[in-house]
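Deviations from the work plan: none for this task. Representative record:
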Amino acid sequence: MLNSIRFRLLAGTILGTLVVYVASAAVLYGAIRQSLLSEFDGGLLTKANVLSGLTEQTDRGLRIEPEVGQPTYGDGRSDEGFVLLAEDGRALAKSEPLGRRAWWKSVPLRADDRRYFGFLSEPDLRARYVVTRYTPRRIDSDRDERPVVSPPAKPVTLIVLGNPHEMNEKLQNLLALLIGSFALATLVSAGILALVIRGGLRPLGALAGELQGIGGDDLQKRVEVGRPPSEIQPVVERLNELLERLDASFSRERAFTADVAHEMRTPLAGLTTALEVSALRPREAAEYQQTIQGCLAASRSMRSMVENLLTLARADARQLNAGRKNVDLSGLMQRAWEPFAARAAGRNLQVVWSLDENAGMQTDAGLLSMVVTNLFDNAVSYIDDGGKLQIELHKNDAATVMRIANSGSEIAAEDTAKVFERFWRADLSRTGSGQHFGLGLALCQRITTLLGGEISVQSQRGGVFEVTLRFV
Amino acid sequence: MRVLVVEDFALLRESICQGLREAGFAVDAASDGNSGLWQALSAPYDVIILDLMLPRLDGLSVLRQLREKGRNDHVLILTAKDTTSDRIKGLDTGADDYLVKPFEFAELLARVRALVRRQYQAKNPIVKVEDLEIDTAARTVRRGGQTIELTPREYALLEFLAMRVGQVVTRTQVWEHVYEFHDDAASNVVDVFIGHLRRKIEMPEKARLIHTRRGHGYVLGAKEEEC
């Protein structure tokens, strides 16, 4: 589940939205707090200005003129307050918010700053303050109509303390609102995202379902996702191509196995029936001899089929290794011909030899003679009675060429490419003769390629069937 | 009974022919589809054993052409093709039986005998005429509980008559069903064999069973007025 695309997309996008939401909430909160604070500071400053306007230096000392509407400080219960400090730090006038004495001791005093704000954060007194420095007005009292000259005023420091709890409350509400609305937005967008992702991934689910329905036995099926999105389309196409290739190779394999089984059955049936019938009653020695000869021939051809199949299988599994020795090719061809000489004579074949006696080559004698034997066998089997068989071997600087051609071909020119297919035969029904299994040329091609040569076939129906081996 | 074997693998064809001959059948053989069809059309066969994959003309085409030409010979397909669809195709083309290679020869023989019985609408392998018992499965003949030894050719002749009990069988029919293509066609060969057969199964104190219908042929039966 943690590794699903759905989970990754959902987690990723939710994390992303959350980061964006938190950042924008922080910016919004900061901006609003700044503006609220400056508003609050403006209020504090107004109070300070009022107080400083009311401060007078009279001949009797410094006093704050009481006036209607003057902020009421000093009742000790409010957390607002002020203090007027002389240059030596003496408190000329003060109020004691929440009954705190000398609360101003924790306010830093900076002589060179005419006006500044700050936060007082004592354990039981958290407030905003403004510090202003000014020189109070000098009032010459004309009481008793006797002018009195007041001493020159000295600069004082006024600290006004205000509690921003209203602002804090607003900010807290704002924060709650921001967190609440953004959390809600995140939840809603997560829900929408989940739906969108589910919808978006539906084709993938459909694809998986389709694939689940395809087993080893029904590879003819193709993946069908109705109007797949463009991202899935190539996947579907590649999958279908893959299925097609798999299907083709499975069918080839099935056909091959069926062919092998089929090709084995007829000679096997021949063997068993011959032996069964022979065993039905006692017979003359000559009769047994005849049965034995027939069975021997059938088992020999089955053996050669099995050997050809094994060699092909080894070549397919790349377990067939070609050795390299200097081989006398003309001798090899002559030796390979020996087993066929009697058959050729029996069918009155005209065999024409044209061998380059000195032709030699670095190759694997065993494998090459297997090829030549197969070609001779084909030629002697498919040639017309009394036909002409040409066996040639030529070597020049460019290449070594072996050519075996027989008359009486039954293979049309357009079918020459198929002769290398396993179990292909010119006459489709001409199977089960127990003699030829349509493997010979497939094997020849495989081995010739392994030996680094090329094999090619030319044929005219009713004319000459010619196989050429060419080694460069 | 006369059988045609169409099979291109020589060892199998010759073995089947030999086995069938030794079992008392008259057997002809063909090694490709064309000659098989030609032979099947030129003589009536009780059973045709037909391979499917044949040179020149495949077995199914041979069968189809036989049926198109109205031939009702019983056909047993003997092939290496073993899938259900192959069997269905073979039977639907008009085959009467289907046997897959490799097979037991005894089974082939039993199937051929069964087809012969079907040919003559006989279910019981034992044919009884009066006190004559012909067991077509065991190939034994008894009269009055006494076993009679017959040569294969004599047995074949008796079996052919037994399959048509009460019916007139012409010399030509006997010739066609009991003899092979390459047998000598001496004009009186059937009469000679009927004579041999009569000598073996007729008993002096019992009724005659093989009757001659002059100008027509022979009848195997209990009471037949001679013409």
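Chain A touches chain B at residues 261-263, 265-274, 276-278, 280-281, 291, 294-295, 297-298, 427-434 (CB under 8 Å).
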